[in-house]
Design goal:
Layout: E1 2-4, H1 15-18, E2 30-35, H2 42-49, H3 52-55, E3 59-64, H4 68-77, E4 82-86, H5 87-95, E5 101-109, E6 115-119, E7 136-138, H6 144-153, H7 162-165, E8 166-168, H8 174-180, E9 185-189, H9 192-200, E10 203-207, E11 217-224, H10 225-230, H11 232-248, H12 252-258, H13 267-270, E12 281-283, H14 284-296
Parallel strand pairs: 2-3, 2-4, 7-8, 7-9
Antiparallel strand pairs: 1-12, 4-11, 5-11, 6-9, 6-10
Amino acid sequence: MVTALAFTSAACGGDDDKKGKSANGLEKTTLTVGAMPVTDDAPLQIAVQKGLFKAEGLDVKLETIAGGADAIPKLKGGALDISFGNFVSFLGASSKGVLDVRFVAEGFQSAPGTHAVLVPKDSPITSVKDLVGKKIAVNTKRNISTLLIRATLEPSGISLDDDKNFVEMPFPAMEAAIKAKSVDAVQAVEPFVTQLQQSVGARVLTDLSQGPTADFPIAGYATSAAFAEKNPKTVAAFQRALAKGQAMAADKQVVQAVLPSYTKITTEVAATLSYGAFPTTLSATRLQRVADVMQQYGYLTTKIDVKSLLISGTS
């Protein structure tokens, strides 16, 4: 089932103005949104820079976060209104009752080259079987990084332990770790996959967008149920603007042009990156796949009906 994000304009204020709402009917016009310096987040940057949010009456302020796990307490505490993050962290928080999550939009689907395990160029590790007992740097444990690795390797009989085999490390720190060989391997995403290959000659050991995780829904935008209930028109306006940014990101040249503005990637390097898909709709079918794979590998103890967590676009 696909829930299309509407592009219609928000209703004008009227009586809403007397209740403290904006002239165009939005409950809140200034939003603090969690963002990451990764390719997956390009449509958000496009929407900000192209004035798509302003056209909807929104002033969107971006706050850099380390990942979905970092966003959870900030969404719960109100420091963030909406945040980009991986679906595994959001679904995990929802299942544990940490945060009553509502999904605002999908952000990114994987493709070959967008997520990979890399090793130093002179590493003795030559196959995925050599990763048994090794230390692998990931952005956050028990999130999309470790799930992709486990789901890709376990069908081949390779079992890894989240606590023993994975070390948490921000993506920007992985280059230094590769150089120092303080870890045996890293799990990186674009633009870091390409950057590590070009800067320190890191080797891609395995691509993580294949088999059970081919074209996998990676990340999206979420808020709390409380915020969504209190600010439905504001959330809908955010959805409309972001969906336009997602649609613009289908032109890879647009993505390549925006990347240098919020990452350390140059225009030349941006042209060499691998790109996945930027969905313009919320699909219960796609996101249910994430929840089901999480349950398969023990990241969820009970089945989640993802459809109940989606916010459909409204006028």
